């Protein structure tokens, strides 16, 4: 379902508060990713939505009670593809979602190496298996932009990675060294 972009956490919190008051027949899934952000010369980790503006509900079926309960939550925009006939994820769309939630609620930073032809190879993490969908790599920022297609929309999403040397050791990076 589509919710207010940047306020997905408020929607989830509103749903959890609603759960405490009423018995719910569904659970809210909000896949997130970890990115390294450089601010004032220091790297920090920040959580961001995998699919900005979208959350998912897990339910056997969308009953009229579920439908009305979800629509009342703060930040709700619409069910997909429309409010009259919400459809469940299936096929490739469901596979993409399952891939990310298999890493838990938060997809951490992947581990990568670059081969002799300068192609990225993912050794571990949420990018593993998505190498063919990587459209851009920024080694300095440690990010790979992945093109994902879901519900007839394309998303270009940045995921973080840590680069290892061919020997399996973490790459020495000037940005990671502490200054005296």
UniProtKB/TrEMBL annotation:
- Output this protein's name: NusG family transcription antitermination protein
Q: Which GO terms describe its cellular component?
A: ribosome
SMART domains associated with the record: KOW
Q: Which organism is it from?
A: Treponema pedis str. T A4
Under the heading SUPFAM superfamilies, the entry gives:
N-utilization substance G protein NusG, N-terminal domain, Translation proteins SH3-like domain
Q: Name one GO biological process term.
A: translation
Superkingdom to which the source organism belongs: Bacteria
Which keywords describe this protein according to UniProt? Transcription, Transcription antitermination, Transcription regulation
